[in-house]
Amino acid sequence: MAELVGVYGSTHNPLLWRARGQDLDSTRAGFDRLRDRLARARPDVLVVVATDHLTQWFYDNMPAFLVGKAEHIPATFWNEEREFGLPYRELAGDVALARDLLGGGIERGVDFAASDAFRADHSVLLPLLYLTPELDVPVVPVFTNCMAPPLPGAARFFQVGQVLRQAIEDSPLERRVAVIASGHLATEVGGPRHFAGSPDPGFDERAVTWLAEGRVDEALAALTYDRLREAGNVSHQFLNFLVAMGVADGRPAVHAEGARSRFATSPFFEWEP
Q1: Per-residue confidence (pLDDT) for residue 190, from 0 to 100
Q2: Does residue 21 surpass a pLDDT of 80?
Q3: Domain of residue 138, CATH code
Q4: Domain that holds residue 254
Q5: Pair 32, 58: CB distance under 8 Å
Q6: % the chain with pLDDT above 70
Q7: Distance between CA atoms of residues 251 and 213, nearest Å
Q8: Is pTM, for the whole model, over 0.90?
Q9: 169 is a domain residue
Q10: Is residue 221 a part of any domain in this protein?
Q11: pLDDT, tens only, 35-65
């Protein structure tokens, strides 16, 4: 049987990759801490909950939740190499576990879409470059729609996390599985608030507290589309952390922080499995 060995949450801000400066020390420390904790968990495979940034799925064909089940996963798009300096990489997938997640979700009322031919953008690759820099652990991406409204509600993201946990634990495969949710706190892209620090520090503080204290009901009630849009136009990717919270059965995080920088506040979370 597969075993859940860790649940984590991380920023995927692509500007961090080649940025320098002392104001990023706390962000680097957050990645360092998660990398050490992940290494101790010794996962055989990583389930990465992430969001495609309208790079391969668009308004005309946008899955709410999709399991990527491919043996080889090309990572980064040409514009990410050009704009952020991210390297092109090819990740190893775990097709057998992906199939178990897909089937386990359908059995429990989550009709995941699936794809055998897809790419992973910076929402998948950037956390892995910091957390598993050798990129030697296979990956199963679970893509969520946090970009093209109407979006699934906050409660659905949490439920998907609960179902992922059940599907992992019911898999007959001998796997040590870690889940990494990739997202943002309050973040704005474009316009006068574009990566100019957090556009809503009050949201950041409350959001970290919800996860640190396991305030599931409070988070689900507060995280409406409009409230997230008010916090910043890509802040909806915070919903991915509700998936992680669901995987952790709503328990308080053992570590939760928002590391401030000149770009935005970077989230780092960890739950006991």
Answers
A1: 87
A2: no
A3: 3.40.830.10
A4: 1-45+59-146+236-273
A5: no
A6: 100
A7: 8
A8: yes
A9: no
A10: no
A11: 999 999 999 999 999 999 999 999 999 999 9
Q: 106-163: per-residue pLDDT in tens?
A: 999 999 999 999 999 999 999 999 999 999 999 999 999 999 999 999 999 999 999 9
Q: What is the 3-state secondary structure (H, E, C) of the chain?
A: CCEEEEEEEEECCHHHCCCCCHHHHHHHHHHHHHHHHHHHHCCCEEEEEECCCCCCCCCCCCCCEEEECCCEEEECCHHHHHHHCCCCEEEEECHHHHHHHHHHHHHCCCCCEEECCCCECHHHHHHHHHHCCCCCCCEEEEEECCCCCCCCCHHHHHHHHHHHHHHHHHCCCCCEEEEEEEECCCCCCCCCCCCCCCCCHHHHHHHHHHHHCCCHHHHHHHCCHHHHHHHCCCHHHHHHHHHHHHHCCCCCCCEEEEECCCCCCEEEEEECC
Question: Does 165 reside within a domain?
Answer: no
Asked if the structure places residue 260 within a domain, the reply is yes
The residue to which tokens 């946008």 are assigned: 62
What is the number of structural domains in the chain? 1
Cα gap 78→67, rounded to integer Å: 23
Cis peptide before 43 (omega within 30 of 0): no
Are 161 and 239 in contact by the 8 Å Cβ rule? The answer is no
Q: What angle do CA 243, 142, 140 make, to 5 degrees?
A: 120
Tell me which amino acid residue 163 is.
Answer: V
Q: Which residues pair with 177 in a beta bridge?
A: 4, 45
